[in-house]
Amino acid sequence: MPALVNYVVDDDFYSGGSFYTNSTDLGRLCSISSQVDVFYPPRKRARITAPFVVGETLFEQSKQASIDVLPDECLFEIFKRLPGGRERSSCACVSKHWLMLLISIRKGEYESSKAVKENTDSVSDEDDGYLTRCLEGKKATDMRLAAVAVGTTGHGGLGKLSIRGSSSSSGVTNFGLSAIARGCPSLKALSLWNVPRVGDEGLSEIAKECHLLEKLDLCQCPSVSNKGLIAIAENCPNLTSLSIESCPKIGNEGLQAIGKLCPKLQAVSVKDCLLVGDHGVSSLLSSTSSLLSKVKFQGLNITDFSLAVIGHYGKSVTNLMLSGLENVSEKGFWVMGNAQGLQKLVSLTITSCRGVTDVSLEAMGKGCANLKQMCLRRCCFISDDGLVAFAKSAGSLESLQLEECNRITQSGTIGVLSNCSLKSLTVVKCMGIKDISSEVPLSCCNSLKSLSVRNCPGFGTAGLAVVGRLCPQLQHVDLSGLCGITDAGLLPLLESCEAGLVKVNLSGCLNLTDEVVLALTRLHGGTLELLNLDGCRRITDASLMAIAESCVFLSDLDVSRSAVTDSGVAALSRAEQLNLQVLSFSGCSRVSNKSLPSLKKLGKTLLGLNLQHCNSISSRTFELLVETLWKCDILF
Prior knowledge:
Elements: H1 2-5, H2 23-30, E1 51-54, E2 57-60, H3 72-80, H4 85-92, H5 96-103, H6 107-111, H7 114-117, E3 131-136, H8 142-151, E4 158-164, H9 174-183, E5 189-193, H10 200-209, E6 215-219, H11 226-235, E7 241-245, H12 252-261, E8 267-271, H13 278-287, E9 294-298, H14 304-313, E10 319-323, H15 330-338, E11 347-351, H16 358-367, E12 373-377, H17 384-393, E13 399-403, H18 410-419, E14 424-428, E15 450-454, H19 461-470, E16 476-478, H20 487-496, E17 503-505, H21 514-524, E18 530-532, H22 541-550, E19 556-558, H23 566-574, E20 582-584, H24 596-602, E21 608-610, H25 619-628, E22 633-635
Parallel strand pairs: 3-4, 4-5, 5-6, 6-7, 7-8, 8-9, 9-10, 10-11, 11-12, 12-13, 13-14, 14-15, 15-16, 16-17, 17-18, 18-19, 19-20, 20-21, 21-22
Antiparallel strand pairs: 1-2
Helix pairs in contact: 5-8, 8-9, 9-10, 10-11, 11-12, 12-13, 13-14, 14-15, 15-16, 16-17, 17-18, 18-19, 19-20, 20-21, 21-22, 22-23, 23-24
């Protein structure tokens, strides 16, 4: 070893002389902190004769006995004998050339040397994979990956790596991913988003070296094909989670290999991969049915056959998401429900699938005995009859969410509440929901604790009255975006809630006034924890005074774009029982610099304060708040 370190060559080692004419060029090569990442192929380094100063004397160095003049073969042997990760990291900081040499050495090659074997006990924790690294945008380069590969050794080992948005000409390539593979065999989770220059070669290197890989996430990787995915399947038997999105070269063959060779797979998501069809999905489901619990398929060219396979082989599936399946008909969903294989299914989400009709929806309700959460988005062929039939057949249903299902009316939602023990109902942008007066006796739904009706312009006073009669045990109410409701319509609902409201969201309800807030604080001030009045422009300081007087447990208050002033802020600050953690005055133009003392007092408990678009608050006031409320995240 000493002989190698002191190795010196004579002047004619390079017949052509140095490629670099001065020390500045060499410095550019060696600077690891350069703004531009440039790859220099391994070669023998030239000896540089450069002037330097000792004391006051300037002279030429005739000969340089330095490790810099060693050929790469010698450096390679030296680096292999470095005892630990700290020493390797130090060497990697010398130059890019040394960094390139270090990443060319596989982790196993260090362990095979005698010097490392003698230190096995001291570095045995290097492979545990404790560390997480995320490279985004311009920071995602091959050089940074090489530095990560060397730098994480000896510090817990790299366990999770995420690369996002590396689409530039200097972005990550197969070379960078290969460096990670050689230096980080402890890698367990890899996420690649928008990395067009990474292909099968890089992924194959990961598969070859990182046998502990458990999670793989590929998004917008146009150069990765079935070949790379097959390599993962053949070499990573511990794979438990696979997510593939917008990878146009991945198709059935890759999924078939995953299903056949990855018996521990528990979660799979395949989105917008046009080459994936029935053969890939059916092979994946039929081969991994024993452990596979989470499944998501979106934008695929699959037919009724795939849904029949899901219904038959999905015996362990607990969460299922199906979206944009244009080639699946009513028959496919009907067979999936009647196959009786989804007995463990707990959560089902279906979006933009024309095959979901009243008939198929009822079949799914009957076939999924333990279904607790159901979400239907943009399913335009579902009517009130199908929804009520589903509610009757799905006896375990606890949560129902309907978004942009425009054939559903208020009669359908009332029928659901009357026929099952729902705990949560959410209705969003369903244009068929319109006020109807109902004098028919209704059975109470005492189980419903959470009601959310958002952006349904037809829902108003009559609908609120029905809800008040049906659901006396409500604790969470979200009526955001309902411009038509008034004080007269909301007050009966507030009076009928017997359990005490905990979370109330009235954002965008333009016609509500202080009267509602006064009633809310009087009736539910002892239980209220969250109140959102964003955009309620008729809310004034009277509401803040009532909140300060009556609310004991309130921790989150939003009065953005309202008519509150400095007086209201002062009233809040005087309430000794208040323990606010999140407070928003965004867009309140009447809150000014005069509120500085009050905000400082409130800030003793605040974790978040929103003062955006408060035009009467100056930058100086904001700076003073930042200095004083150092624990609080302030937006301005």
